[in-house]
User: Fold these one by one.
Assistant:
Number 1:
Amino acid sequence: MTPRLNAYETAPDAMKAMLALEAHVQQSGLEKSLIELVKTRASQINGCAFCLHMHTRDARAAGETEERLYLLDAWRESPLYSPRERAALAWTESLTLIAETRAPDADYAAAAAEFTPAELVELTLLIGTINTWNRIAIGFRYLHPAA
């Protein structure tokens, strides 16, 4: 795979805006572990190797276990995730695959039961942000480090 362009060099102001959005997500008050699970799950769905490499490393550095990372793609069949995490993962899948799911009421209700309205906005912003990062990395063929 050959990188297509460097968005930071090509459109620095646009990328500054993305970085500001990312900084907001990081300061949103959502748990760091939850943020990394959501980023990893959306990146799995989108097939973003660059982001998967980054966010699984970040998750492990923040204390996430290998087992939970390995089982993330099958979170519905695993008891390792809390009700709050399960609601966030369902909402992540719904919004990442929105053309297929149309954000079903059941997924919204599950998220609304675990998150305050303000947290639900922050979670939705987190999901949208990682999906944008995935599209930048995949679209411009960003390569993850080899080691």
Number 2:
Amino acid sequence: MTPGLLSKLPQITIATFVFALGSAAFDTVRAEDKPGFFKKLFGGGSKTETPPEPEKKPAPASKPKAEPAKTTAKPTASAPPTGKPPRVIITTTGGGSKKKVEIGKTTTPAPTKTAAKTETPKAEPKLEPIKDVTATAKRGEGEFKGDNDDKAAAAKAEATVLPAKDGWDIVKIEGREYVTAESIRNFYNPVYGFTTFRLQGNHFWLGSSKLILKAQIGSQEMLINNIKFILSFPVLSHNGKVLFSRLDLCKLIDPVLYPSHIQNAEYFDTVVVDAGHGGHDAGARGIYGYEKDFALKMAMSVRTALMQRGFKVILTRANDTFITLGGRVAIANQTPKSIFLSFHFNSGGSAATGIETWALTPQNASATMSRGGGFNLNGVTGNKQDSANIALATAVHASVISRFKFVDRGVKRAQWSVLSGCKRPGILFEGGFVTNGAECLLVASDTYRQQVSAAVADAVVNYRKALESAMASKR
């Protein structure tokens, strides 16, 4: 966020920084399921229950800075497919007609595929670096943990309260800087008008009619209007104050809440669409086919949807061809005025289900899963786009999750090679588990892929509009 933002905040309206709805066709979920802010910002999300607690509007503050992030690659797997998918009928609702894909929620999500190491690009310069490089605690998947989980450890952490800087209350715990939730509320309050600020037991709410943020002490999961994000570090508490890591503030919370103030935003009119795997690299073995084939079909469908919305599209592969990870990155980097979308499908146990979207791990943080590249100590090329990466991931993930009843596995972090070496804003989207019977049945359906592709394309439109003011001088 720019240093001069504070003076401009009272003048900013929601229309200037939110993701706008691209078209009437985007309205496939009832309006009451996508209230106010989230409907505009991400194109989806539902309002979480929050205890009413009116408060006076605090004075704004100015935000501390932080920027830029060893590396790994995305998975492979192979084996022959079995059987042909039966005919699929998908119904969805909205606009007077039935149009809604539904998948029943099942058990705790299983871990995803493996990643292979690759060379580490030279680190990008940092603005105001997070000095600590301590590895993160192991994070779990699924819903929030119980009230007592990790609470004692978080509360006992040795803390040093630092002098307030630019209105931000900073607490240092085990070498890592945290900011208080009060500081976050104070800074964003002029736009969001928070009326709820509450810590009840181990659960924290910050909310208004436009935005509801929910977190839990000791957990790395955070919900913004019911869309799940995986933080780089757990939320802590000290002397009754809720603490978020400064890294998460700079690399996740701020770009999501203020996409129009992302620094170094570049105008784009082209989307590089990457179908994962290909050729001898079959990817995951699904019940009704190989991941490589589903990924290619999805990429072609996304290409059509994007072109219908006026974008130029470059495919990394248009047939069953093997392309190295470096080759995919090279195509993205050589394409001017572009963003990068890589499409994959997950594998796991038969009960594993859900959608997840990956953005590059910030420097001085660990990947969401152990096989996602480990701790990103020195930074990588793609970290220059950290803010744009997380905003793009949020737009795509929320658009798909809000339109279909999928298990939300969250917006996550990893150092997949196609992300770590990319000089353009980029994400990796996992469109479901081909090892889950019901989900693979959908993945094998043209109707499903077309509808998901429409949601993705709408998200790209929304993302560009959200960054429009930041991009205006760079066309």
